[in-house]
């Protein structure tokens, strides 16, 4: 009972922090807009400069940050549980490599010239790569075992990464695009993007929460999970689908942002314990806290211009993470 | 939640695949898939199939080395190669290409591959995680930061190597200091390495977006890993480093076996756990450092070589020597393919003719080939669980 209260209370605290960050994310920025103007702009578009900044730039940016953050955090937790490997990150299924390869292909061969039209390419690339990884990983007798999935992911990621590197060595223009896409950013997203990506993230999150119970049992080992009535193959397939939806959407929206999906699940597990029904909600709230916090800092830290969120997440998150690791007496994965 | 174990389930050795079976002459005794070597009171048990894998890998790598001496943009007949090598006579262009470009680069591929393979095996054993590579303690990303910082201001290749080693060692030292509270704990080391790696990754991608395209492109090529433009100096450095570090790793390989059984059991067997782990980590970092300084952070060799060696040798754990041999073979093959593939690209008009003379970075090939090979191994072994 006390544990439930503690966990629930922790969730409320994290939710409060997230709320503060959402407010800051809408209210703070390079363009000087007062809080009063922000408030008015939120309730109606009066055609003013402030309304343009808030409605066209900051609100979409904040929403994309919320969606992408939650998606990355949960995708990471699923991936680590599925492969039973705490070093697994959502990119391990080949999602990031697939998305990057599609972006390079779109720019280099199809001449797609703007970031915004790349979204669907990267989503398609991510989906395709993770299907290949799953088929390869599931081809064994025992179905998609953790180690096979991890190795298949490493194989596909490496091959695609090599292809990308090979193509960009000889194509400076494509590399020029790629190096900016690779950093990961929330800035300059179309307002419509939020509506387009929300369904994918929504379905992924619901699927993840539905799978939490089965994954809990499966984490005890395949035999024990089966004994507890879990349909092993179906659970694993569902998890891969969820990771693809979540991570593909996040990568398409913001580029391959690292660290969040790797570390947030570990932190969530320390705070909430190994039960996914608790740690997934923590991930959903903690990951956007990191992403939005990093985005806000990135807007303020430079005297001129902004720092991309992908360059800031780890700079902020890693020291906190390292301090947490050092404070714990018995570190277990 | 426990980390996935490195070791595959031991399979009973079938007599038909085990090479010359039965009692061998001298101090070699075969039993249970192992050879016991005895010589003046020193005895050693060698996993039979692993020894064969080592021998085959090195033999193949030797063949590839010879082939790579003969082929390239300027083809040289084997007889001419021999003459150029042993007497330094014949076509002057051929002598130059063979002795000053192809031989040092092919040797460097062998040595760097070996170093990366052993280093990867050390870290995969230490962290008991098949996804671990020297990068888990942040070495590669620190080296990359050092190198990019030098490249962004336009430094020479020797300065880049120094920057890479400096950055890598500094990072490894920081990770160690942060992790060493209350003894060197394997898991804590990995987690802190992850954090530091992620931070440096951010710095790297930031530096790349803020430099000129030309400098970023140079850094990009270095980051892929390349052997082009390397000469005898790099080979000498690598050879000396390996001559020192490989014997140490043979000795320490046995400690690894014991550490694999768990800290408590190893302690019970008289192994100084903390000190062994420190020595092994320094060994892994050292091997990785010299490799990265000579060829850049060539991807995938450190990750895949130990796993491939283990899958082929069907040994119960990762053997350092087999990992080194398979790493050497992997990188030699990748080097050969890299040299050929650009002509193919030019013929298919994927790159324009002016770029024919430049080399494809070997890292491109290791990633693609290694990935495809690993996928193939996985597919072929679909009847087993791993």
From TrEMBL, chain A:
It is a multi-pass membrane protein. The chain crosses the membrane at residues 12-30, 62-79, 91-112, 118-137, 149-173, 193-216, 237-267, 279-302, 309-326. Keywords: Cell membrane, Membrane, Transmembrane, Transmembrane helix, Transport. The keyword Protein biosynthesis does not apply. InterPro entries: ABC_BtuC-like (IPR037294), ABC_transptr_permease_BtuC (IPR000522). This is Iron chelate uptake ABC transporter family permease subunit. Pfam families: FecCD. Belongs to the binding-protein-dependent transport system permease family. FecCD subfamily. It is found in: Cell membrane.
């Amino acid at each position: 009972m006390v544990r439930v209260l503690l966990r629930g209370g922790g969730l409320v605290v994290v939710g409060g922090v997230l709320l503060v960050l959402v407010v800051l994310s809408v209210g703070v920025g390079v363009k000087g807009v007062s809080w009063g103007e922000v408030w008015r702009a939120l309730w109606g578009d009066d055609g003013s400069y402030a309304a343009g900044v808030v409605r066209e730039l900051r609100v979409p940016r904040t929403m994309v940050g919320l969606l992408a953050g939650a998606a990355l955090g949960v995708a990471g937790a699923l991936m680590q549980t599925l492969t039973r490997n705490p070093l697994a990150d959502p990119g391990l299924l080949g999602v990031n490599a697939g998305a990057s390869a599609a972006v390079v292909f779109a720019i280099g061969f199809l001449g797609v010239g703007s970031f915004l039209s790349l979204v669907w390419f990267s989503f398609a690339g991510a989906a395709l790569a993770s299907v290949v990884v799953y088929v390869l990983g599931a081809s064994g007798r025992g179905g998609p075992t953790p180690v096979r999935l991890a190795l298949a992911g490493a194989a596909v990621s490496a091959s695609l990464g090599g292809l990308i590197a090979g193509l960009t060595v000889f194509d400076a223009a494509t590399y020029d695009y790629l190096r900016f896409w690779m950093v990961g950013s929330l800035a300059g997203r179309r307002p419509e993007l939020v509506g387009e990506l929300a369904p994918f993230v929504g379905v992924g999150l619901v699927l993840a929460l539905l799978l939490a119970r089965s994954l809990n049992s499966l984490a005890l080992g395949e035999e024990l999970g089966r004994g507890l009535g879990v349909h092993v193959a179906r659970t694993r397939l569902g998890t891969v689908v969820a990771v693809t939806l979540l991570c593909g959407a996040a990568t398409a929206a913001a580029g391959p942002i690292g660290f969040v999906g790797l570390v947030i699940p570990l932190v969530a597990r320390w705070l909430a314990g190994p039960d996914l029904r608790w740690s997934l909600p923590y991930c959903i709230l903690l990951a956007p806290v990191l992403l939005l916090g990093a985005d806000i800092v990135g807007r303020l830290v430079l005297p001129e211009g902004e720092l991309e969120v992908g360059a800031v997440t780890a700079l902020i998150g890693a020291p906190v993470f390292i301090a947490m690791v050092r404070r714990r007496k018995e570190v277990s994965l | 939640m426990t980390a996935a174990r490195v070791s595959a389930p031991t399979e009973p050795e079938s007599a038909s695949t085990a090479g010359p079976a039965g009692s061998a002459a001298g101090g070699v005794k075969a039993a249970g898939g192992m050879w016991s070597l005895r010589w003046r009171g020193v005895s050693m048990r060698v996993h039979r199939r692993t020894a064969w894998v080592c021998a085959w890998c090195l033999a193949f790598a030797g063949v590839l080395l010879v082939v790579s001496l003969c082929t390239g943009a300027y083809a040289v007949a084997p007889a001419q190669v021999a003459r150029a090598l042993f007497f330094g006579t014949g076509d002057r262009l051929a002598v130059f290409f063979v002795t000053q470009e192809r031989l040092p680069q092919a040797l460097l591929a062998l040595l760097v591959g070996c170093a990366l393979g052993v280093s990867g095996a050390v870290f995969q054993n230490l962290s008991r995680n098949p996804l671990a590579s020297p990068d888990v303690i942040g070495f590669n990303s620190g080296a990359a930061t050092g190198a990019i910082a030098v490249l962004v201001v336009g430094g020479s290749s020797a300065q880049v190597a120094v920057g890479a080693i400096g950055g890598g060692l500094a990072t490894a030292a920081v990770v160690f200091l942060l992790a060493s509270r209350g003894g060197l704990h394997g898991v804590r080391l990995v987690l802190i390495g992850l954090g530091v790696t992620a931070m440096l990754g951010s710095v790297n991608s930031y530096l790349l977006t803020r430099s000129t395209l030309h400098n970023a492109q140079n850094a990009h090529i270095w980051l892929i890993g390349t052997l082009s433009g390397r000469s005898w100096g790099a080979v000498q450095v690598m050879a000396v480093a390996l001559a020192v570090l490989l014997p140490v790793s043979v000795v320490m390989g046995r400690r690894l076996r014991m550490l694999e059984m768990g800290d408590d059991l190893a302690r019970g067997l008289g192994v100084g756990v903390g000190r062994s782990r420190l020595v092994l980590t320094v060994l892994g970092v050292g091997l990785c450092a010299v490799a990265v300084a000579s060829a850049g952070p060539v991807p995938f060799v450190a990750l895949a070589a130990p796993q491939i060696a283990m899958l082929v040798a069907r040994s119960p754990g990762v053997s350092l020597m087999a990992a080194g041999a398979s790493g050497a073979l992997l990188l030699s093959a990748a080097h050969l393919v890299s040299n050929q593939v650009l002509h193919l690209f030019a013929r298919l008009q994927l790159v324009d003719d002016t770029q024919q003379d430049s080399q494809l970075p070997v890292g491109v090939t290791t990633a693609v080939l290694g990935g495809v090979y690993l996928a193939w191994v996985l597919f072929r072994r679909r009847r087993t669980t791993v």
